[in-house]
Amino acid sequence: MTAAVVLLPTAASASQPSDVKPVRVVVLVDESGSLSGPDVARERAASQLIALSELSPQSQVAVVGFGSSNGPGQAAVDIACPLTGVQTAQDRESLSRCVDKLRRRNSDEGGDTDHAAALEQALDIMNTPDDQQRAKIVFLLTDGVLDVRNSPQYGADAQARNRNARAQIDRSLRDAEKARVQIWPLGFGSADKTSLDAFAAGGWRQPCGDQETATPRARVVASSADVERSLLEAFAYARCAGIEQSVTDSLEPNATVDLQVNIPVIATDGSIVVVKRDRRIRVAYFDPDGNQVPKQGEQNDSTFQVAGEAGPVESLRIRNPLPGKWRVQLTSPPGVSRQDVSATVVWQGALRASISLSNPRPRPGEQVAVRLRLQTRTGTITDPAALEGLRFTARMSGDGFQELPVDLRDTGDGPDRAQGDGEYSGQVTIPASATGALSFLGKVTGPGVAGDERPYATRVAGPADRLRAQVQLDAATVEPGGEVSGTVRVTNDAEPAQLTLRLVDVPGTVSLSVQRFQAAAGTSEHGLKLRIGADAPKGPVGGSVQVLDATGQVVAEEFVDVDVQPPTPLWQRLLQALLILLLILAVALPLLLLRRRARMRAADPSELTFYLFERPGEPYVSKMQAPLGEGPEFTFEISAGRLVRTFGTGYTARRGGGQTVLVRDPSGQELEPLRPGRPIPLPGGVFLGVDDARVKGAEPAYGSREPYQSRTHRPMPGDDLL
């Protein structure tokens, strides 16, 4: 499907909400005598799939059974379900029930196969006046080939009747092509695919532009499960919708099974189609947040409508579905035989493609950046995965030059401001021959995309255009009731001008703080604020802010890129603060312990050995190694000419800087620094020396080298915490 976009500068401040395009569907169902009982049940279920899966409430569906007319009182076609809308759940339920009229005909009712009459009836229904310009789709379900040899209305000669009917089919197909009626044949069993191919090729074949999957084609399937999937695919492609992978499981009696289905971000409308086969099976639906949704009514920003609960096929139609994984829960009561159940999502994106120019009033020869992005009803699509498979293009046309293509990319290069942000940009030079009107047409094509056509119309600037402006509005995340600040920069080479601000394609919950302002001559800046309403729903806000001059011409514009998020609950903020605190402690505590350990090692005196001398240069008379693990200081005294360890009294020794040892006498007075090889005098005519085993490779200052057992490898206080 192609979404061609036009934002008229003179349009209203916000366009009408986008809706999926309605369709008019006629399902032609073979009732010939060659059908079996399971075949009829299969056709009924297939017809219900169409009736219940339709996305637009403005669509219409008719179901027509056909056989042949071989004698008086027989009719080749039976209208099981006249053309009916699908706006309400009651409408859809009515369609779901009326397909029960479909039956296998016997010979007295005309049990042959008249495709010509069936197609003629479908076209007659399609010709009913239509004020919605609905797309026209015919589904042909059949298990056989054309056989009207017993139908006198095709001529007296029985041998010529099939030939005459084929000629009528050819005429009807030409009429179908002119009236843009798609024909999607679905055959099963022994159906002739060659004949069905002719039906598909004869009708309208470009419902979704160049989208290959949407080209009508015939399908021939073997099993009922294949019928369901094939028809759903044909239905989705025919109305330019998307279809997700079907999920199937086995449901035992008195048991429950969950089926996980996906609704993509790009979907604005969807149907979860559940084939449960036994009407006694109950179905519940849960959104990606785990909340069970109602089967009728609204929840948050979504609208729900279920139909088919009392039948073998059930469908939940959702407007503005929450994207992500949905859970479909099926529960079987006791006494119901084991069933194969399935769920499939059919979806469509009713999107607006917003187009913007870096300079809405360019001069001939100037370069202009053209920017294009997609919006749902509620916000802008920025997820690159959601946009994968879509194609963004633009073309420029105007007075004085031929139409030119504009190459759009989301690579972050050239005019594109950021890679992967959902904004596709390209640059084009306004031809020097441009003289007046200028227009840009943006298009987005791809599976499941439905949109409108709204070209962006402007004019090249003339000599009298002496005012330029630029809107600065950064991306922001705000709470409901918050504000986003922006700036309008104006260069005015003429008299003071009155300028107007307006919002385009922005939800009604968002407003501007300023509507008009005066732009003085010269350069000026003007502030603006986007005010987010207190009732604004959660999620992205799209659209744009435009600046208009006194004539209503757009002179500047910028996309709105705001994400509305509810305030964080107090308990969650406290939890976040606690987690941050724990993280800081987890990082800081080991560092603090390491620093403490390093300080303790630096102060540890255990590798110091003290010597007592009567005179320097003579052998020591006493020695003592400092204790381990008793803190950075230790005390000792001299008793009977020997060094004796004490606790809290006497001399105090501790490490200083480098190889220095600091000693205080019993009165607390600091003595001169003690270093290896340089003894200091003590009262009583003795001298105190020291050796430090921490100095690697150094010879001891006193006495011979003795094996020294270093004790710093032993556990230190705090080691057990690291």
- Give the N-terminus to C-terminus distance in angstroms: 64 Å
State the total count of DSSP E strands.
44
- Strand residue content: 35-45%
Low-confidence stretches: 1-17, 705-722
Describe what is shown at a glance.
This protein has 722 residues and is of the alpha+beta class.
Topology record:
Layout: E1 2-5, E2 23-30, H1 37-53, E3 60-66, E4 77-85, H2 89-98, H3 115-126, E5 135-142, H4 158-178, E6 181-188, H5 193-202, E7 219-221, H6 224-238, E8 242-243, E9 247-251, E10 256-263, E11 269-275, E12 282-286, E13 296-299, E14 302-307, E15 313-319, E16 324-331, E17 339-350, E18 352-357, E19 367-375, H7 384-387, E20 391-398, E21 401-407, E22 424-429, E23 437-445, E24 449-450, E25 456-459, E26 467-472, E27 476-478, E28 483-492, E29 497-504, E30 510-512, E31 516-519, E32 522-532, E33 539-541, E34 544-548, E35 554-559, E36 562-564, H8 570-603, E37 608-613, E38 622-625, E39 633-639, E40 642-646, E41 651-655, E42 661-664, E43 680-682, E44 686-692
Helix pairs in contact: 1-2, 1-6, 3-4
